[in-house]
Design a protein that fits this description.
Length: about 200
């Protein structure tokens, strides 16, 4: 199964969630587009305590910016045909770039990449003023493209009312809640992976 990790905004916690999923599912990892440093793949490798295989990116761009802009600065035009899912016998966690409607080029968005390479989407929602709107709009976009969403992972300072209304209107379930952590290491990831496994098949 290919799980695509996307989010409602940039810096939402997709990389940590990807590491948690790799730990919980004993899955491999692929970041199709990396824009700027540090590489998210290096972070996942440090955080996962199992034998997760880290596959190389399809595109590595120099500038930490929207992929379409970073690619233009590097003289590259990304195409959906350039994204080939790496072969593995394990589940594969695929980490997107930014949010669903981040452009890859003048035609395609990250959500189109998800439709091409993934079986199921995991949505990460960090909780801030405006996140209800951003989360529900993202869910609408995913459903418009008939993408299957496994559930939502909330990240950051808890806001029970925001979480409740998002789940109510989206009809999705909460897979995990991640608190603000002073230290993020393999032990942290393992603790959340164990919690995720408890909710995974409900």
């Amino acid at each position: 199964m290919n799980y695509f990790v996307t989010a409602i905004d940039t810096d939402s916690g997709k990389t940590m969630v990807s590491a948690i999923l790799c730990e919980a599912l004993q899955a491999d990892y692929w970041k199709p587009v990396q824009a700027g440093l540090p590489r998210d793949a290096d972070t996942v490798q440090k955080l996962v305590g199992n034998n997760t295989i880290i596959f190389p990116e399809a595109y590595v761009l120099k500038t930490p910016a929207s992929p379409h802009a970073a690619a233009a600065l590097d003289g590259i035009t990304m195409k959906l045909s350039g994204f080939i899912v790496p072969p593995t016998k394990n589940d594969l966690v695929i980490e997107g770039a930014g949010g669903c409607l981040v452009p890859l080029n003048d035609t395609d968005f990250v959500i189109d990449l998800a439709a091409k390479v993934a079986d199921v989407v995991i949505l990460v929602a960090d909780l801030y003023l405006g996140s209800i709107n951003h989360t529900l709009l993202t869910v609408e976009a995913l459903r418009k493209r008939n993408l299957r969403v496994k559930g939502i992972i909330f990240n950051g300072q808890p806001n029970r009312e925001s979480e409740r209304i998002i789940l109510h209107h989206s009809g999705l379930r909460c897979l995990l809640r991640i608190a603000r952590e002073e230290t993020i290491d393999q032990n942290t990831v393992k603790r959340y992976a164990d919690l995720l496994k408890e909710n995974w098949n409900e």
